[in-house]
Structure formats: C-alpha cells, structure tokens
Amino acid sequence: xxxxxxxxxxxxxxxxxxxxxxxxxxxxxxxxxxxxxxxxxxxxxxxxxxxxxxxxxxxxxxxxxxxxxxxxxxxx
Length: 76
Known about the structure:
The protein is of the alpha+beta class. The protein has one domain. The protein has one helix and three strands; from the N terminus they run ββαβ. A three-stranded antiparallel beta sheet has the order 2-1-3, covered by helices on one side. Strand 1 and strand 2 (19-27) form a beta hairpin.
C-alpha cells in the first residue's frame, strides 16, 4: 500500500456562514472511500449537502507540510 484515502464532509452554514466539517475516515482504497460516501449520503447531516463529500489521496512516507504555521486573529 502506497497511499490512503481521507474522506471528509464540509459545507457552509446559511445563518452565520461558518464551515462545518466532519472527518469520515481513512480508507485503504478509493473504492472503499466511495462505498462509504454512497452509504452515508442519504443520512441526516449529509443528505442536504451531498456535494460536500471529498476524497483526498495521501501518499505514505511523504512530508505534506514543511512551511510552518501562521495564526489569524479573528477578534480584530
């Protein structure tokens, strides 16, 4: 296995325009990730935003982020 498939569900709320994120899981194949999306897509919390599912492939033993971090102060 050289990679895994990360599945999440995200959408913008209408009231306050916040982004809602749900981490669904990490799968050994794209097919397993797609089967999970198909199974969950009619459930409450997902069915109103079926376009919110996303599959990302991550390769093992690779650094994904080397640039450091920064902070955004939303209070200003």
